[in-house]
From TrEMBL, chains A, B:
SUPFAM superfamilies documented for this protein: 2Fe-2S ferredoxin-like
A GO MF label: iron-sulfur cluster binding
Pfam families (UniProt xref): Fer2 (PF00111), RACo_C_ter (PF14574), RACo_linker (PF17650), Raco_middle (PF17651)
InterPro entries, per database record: 2Fe-2S_ferredoxin-like_sf, 2Fe-2S_ferredoxin-type, Beta-grasp_dom_sf, Corrinoid_activation_enz, Raco-like_middle, Raco-like_middle_sf, RACo_C, RACo_linker
UniProt xrefs under Gene3D superfamilies: 3.10.20.30, 3.10.20.880, Domain of unknown function (DUF4445)
Organism, as annotated: Caldimicrobium thiodismutans
Name the UniProt record assigns to this protein: Ferredoxin
Length: 618, 618
């Protein structure tokens, strides 16, 4: 990969083929003016190519637009004086390291297919069909404890169709095997499973080949329940309407199936090959999928219908898979700590390791788990949807046109920002919001209480309808035709949200006599965790101020956990053990919670000693 | 009870209040002419009342009709000389003793109802509903291994409806308990089960209270599948038609339900109180009820779909009981040794005792079991339906108007007979046929090969369309307006049937190195067994010639077995053990079967040493 040397700062780094010079600059914290989000129209991101070869659009004859510039060889670029640069900001861009938790396990799915060549009956030995089958299985050490009625009915025909050569599909549960399918002839090669992360916003599915353990296809789409309510609370409300619950369940099942068909099409496989469907979702989503009454999840004292969901068959749920195909749901711990978290902890391996780990899943709510192989404490922080852009004036989901990264020049207070898909800016998504707030704080445009400087006159600072605000994108440059602003109200919401998270870390740790400094690792789950900038998140006090090499982002651990259960039989037991181990702390009910929360309503915190690296940098 | 002394024979016996003098005479083997079947119209059964008081219809001023005569006090009756009497016949009427197999077991049904007052959740302890319930059950030592989805869906509502005071219904299986119902409040008193004998001809049902073990109601009716075929073979044939199997299954399920409703009405109970339905039937009937392919039961090499049927829920079978109510089927051993026999052996206790026992169930086919607590051998004898009146010219089922008992005067060859319900004779049922054949043999009207005397001129003996025959009822006296006859063809059919049975006893015994003389007990199952006259059955060689006190009739052991399973949990395991123990011998395939069978085609047998008591009497 070619290298880029930024002058006059003498900062050099490798650049990947799909990155432009402005992407790399943003990553390195080097400020280049860019007010169009990197789409190549504002003409402000000009750089001078001092040496090397590169492709890009020229401007004013001698400059290149950094947002169009792809190096061909190593290059040296000089950033004109118009783009100021704060040397210290270079320390302020750190991504958590990706951590793929790969274990060296041999593939051992709970679905076993066994090919049998049975001896056909004769008058000397006319054992009934079922017992003939069971005894052949018993010889191979498969003890069958459950035989479904539907299989009994097709049994004599299937056996005779293929002259007593058949393939059986078995599902291993705690006490033996359940017979789930019987096919004429040899069909060992057909053995699929689907793993799904059942999210409030999106469904993510993988199609897995249980013979190889490989992922054959991946897809995702919105959870169609969104049309009936964006967050879990509004969906619980919708479920109270007549047939509301049924409708919600049907919609999400339909969409899952459509996505499954998409996966099958991509892989060139058939729906009849799917033997297992493993689902991990939060407690509300799981209730809604299962058409279980969600009302009491929301009503005091917040009681789910179940923690461990029974093993279901496709036909129980009206899913048009083979009727005995097994549907597994990841167990919940509490109303707001669900199967996505238990599956996530499973995938993270934290419950098998010694290191004291803080697991954070930041979505609509923030769920956190502290522990290691000896104990697990968990809680849901009522962070609200601020980190997904909810409750923020110009907030939006992390889709095309969302501002995902911001840097503000400390002298000019001009922003540099990038949008997802490099489109005209529509609004600001979670990572952009954190980045923006951290920048505002660093350049001193807001104080530690989250208030804008009242003394400064600047075209981007003004008193709007909702109080003071910073104009990130002027309406001329936005996709919406309106200014994209960040208000003091927005900041207040964010401070509350991050305060709830931070107080949560403290309560959980304190409840086992530990403190933040003792954390050996911080795991960030979810796609959010992979976009967040560590320095920014620590700067505003959302993440604890620990050595940066203790932070890891793990990706979609809910989906990873759902997959593990499908690929390794013992992982289901491990998942049960995790669920059993997890002690849930009801934060709102904790006597010290309010104190910790109030103390955290400051940037980064009222107790500066908790953020030593920030005070050092001052 | 008053006593009756019959003169001139000096035979005296007690008479029960519902018996007439002719009933008693028939029981004692005392011949009184009676050609109307005991309905009081032939005026031939006249007796002279010598002393005592009795009520009845007079005839010729000084006589009474014996068929109308009910003693009030002890009486002496004299039988006029017209009614001859063979003294030896007195030895020839022996009923097997009834044997009620009552054990001293404490009631322990596999259904347990448990009333729970759960602590309602609060914010300190907001365990999910399901785990709250399961942990309360676990405290009472009920470990739940299965929770049905439907219950999960109603769980939160039921719990809250009754302020967390609920009654759960559990079904015990091998590995723990299955949760099958949840009701608000205290409902321990509602716990019913139904036991059913699923017969080819009749369904017999009992409604049981699982709290007391008492039978609340009993009913029976024809198996409506009769309309599609009288015997198992014709029903298997019908099942091959399009939707034939479905239709057969639906008909019998409908009828079962109607009968169940009748039981519930009689007992004043509700269908929702039924938690368990235990069914014992032969292999074909069980296949048809379960809509399992019956074809291969009949086709060589005669393979049932299953020996052990899985535990089913009412909803699996589309039965409109509570959907999780358990339906149990008694296991089969082979195509023609079914759940009626395994349940029968269970009820007979023979598999728990030391005495070598021969168990005989004589219905459409004859199923036999030989063994004791150490071993069990079984076989189906292809006796055909002769003992139910099938394949016999004037044969009929044992219903109103069927001749059930016959005695022939050794001098006049005139018959005395009684009909069921004391109606005009319509035909001859099984016990009548055996009785008639034994009488014909005793008085010498047929020889040991089953042929009528050709030398005798008698108005009741003639050569008809189908060869020689005995006219039991002249058309003037029959309900059908036709002569009721017994042909040589009929006799041949009967000889074949009894020969198949006898050869079966011999093969089974020989296969374990035993002989008929070593039998310590003979158990006669089914209603047939309670009507059969031992002397008659031994005379024709249907039953072995053993001391009469070794014979017992047990009644409907299939129904009794189905009941035991419902009342005592461990009986289901015992039933499994019995089924496992039972070694099935395919008679038609046994190398010696044909020899034994041929040797038995004689009255009583070609080997007279096998019937010593008959040769003694000469």
């Amino acid at each position: 990969m070619p290298r880029v040397l930024f002058q006059p700062y003498q900062i050099e780094a490798e650049i990947s083929p799909d990155e432009t010079v402005i992407d790399l600059a943003m990553k390195l914290g080097i400020h280049i003016n860019a007010s169009c989000g990197g789409i190549g129209v504002c003409n402000k991101c000009k750089v001078f190519l001092e040496s090397g070869e590169a492709k890009g659009e020229k401007i004013e004859d001698i400059y290149y637009k950094a947002c169009t510039l792809y190096p061909v060889t190593d290059i040296v670029v000089r950033i004109p004086v118009e783009s100021h640069f704060d040397r210290k900001a270079l320390l302020r861009k750190t991504r958590a390291q990706a951590l793929e938790r790969k274990e060296t396990l041999s593939l051992d799915p709970p679905i076993k297919k066994v090919y049998l060549e049975l001896t056909p009956p004769d008058i000397e030995e006319n054992t009934p069909d079922l017992e003939r089958l069971l005894s052949a299985l018993s010889e191979k050490e498969f003890e069958i404890t459950e035989v479904p009625y539907s299989l009994l009915r097709s049994l004599p025909h299937v056996l005779r169709e293929a002259d007593f050569k058949v393939t059986v599909t078995l599902f291993k549960h705690a006490r033996g095997y359940r017979l789930i399918d019987l096919e004429a002839g040899y069909t060992l090669e057909r053995n699929l499973a689907v793993a799904m992360d059942l999210g409030t916003t999106t469904l993510q599915l993988e199609l897995l080949d249980l013979n190889s353990g490989e992922t054959l296809a991946y897809t995702s789409d919105y959870n169609p329940q969104i049309s009936y309510g964006e967050d879990v609370i509004s969906r619980i409300e919708f479920a109270r309407k007549k047939d509301g619950l049924k409708l919600l369940a049907e919609r999400v099942k339909e969409r899952s199936l459509l996505l499954m068909e998409e996966l099958l099409k991509e892989a060139g496989r058939k729906i009849s090959e799917i033997n297992l469907f493993s689902i991990a979702g939060n407690t509300v989503m799981t209730h809604l999928f299962l058409e279980l009454e969600p009302r009491f999840l929301r009503e005091y004292p917040y009681v789910p219908v179940a923690k461990n969901y029974p093993l279901l068959r496709a036909k129980d749920l009206g899913l048009p898979l083979k009727e005995e195909s097994v549907v597994l749901f990841s167990p919940s711990v509490a109303s707001y700590v669900g199967g996505d978290i238990t599956a996530g902890v499973l995938a993270s391996l934290m419950a098998q390791e010694e290191q004291l780990t803080l697991f954070i899943d930041l979505g609509t709510n923030g769920e956190i788990v502290v522990g290691n192989r000896d104990f697990l404490m968990c809680a849901a922080c009522s962070a609200g949807p601020a980190f997904e852009g909810g409750g923020i004036k110009c907030g939006m989901r992390a889709t095309s046109g969302a501002i995902e990264s911001v840097n503000i020049d400390p002298q000019t207070y001009e922003p540099m920002f990038l949008t997802i898909g490099r489109k005209k800016a529509k609004g600001i998504c979670g990572s952009g919001i954190i980045s923006l707030m951290a920048s505002l704080l660093r350049v001193g445009l807001i104080d530690k209480a989250g208030k804008y400087r009242r003394d400064l006159k600047h075209p981007r600072l003004r008193e709007g309808d909702e109080g003071y605000e910073y104009i990130l994108v002027f309406k001329e440059d936005s996709a919406t035709g309106a200014d994209i602003v960040f208000t003091e109200n927005d900041i207040e919401n964010l401070i509350r949200a991050k305060g709830a998270m931070f107080a949560g870390y403290q309560i959980l740790l304190e409840s086992v006599g530990l403190s933040i400094n003792e954390l050996e690792r911080v795991f960030l789950a979810g796609t959010f965790g992979s976009y967040i900038d560590l320095e920014d998140a620590i700067t505003i006090g959302l993440l604890p101020d620990l050595p940066r090499d203790r932070f890891y982002f793990l990706g979609n651990t809910s989906l990873q956990g759902a997959k593990k259960v499908v690929l390794y039989t013992h992982k289901r037991e491990e998942l049960m053990r995790i669920t059993q181990m997890m002690t849930h702390v009801e934060l709102s009910n904790h006597p010290k919670y309010m104190d910790y929360y109030m103390a955290a309503l400051f940037l980064p915190h009222t107790d500066e000693s908790l953020f030593p690296s920030l005070s050092q940098r001052g």
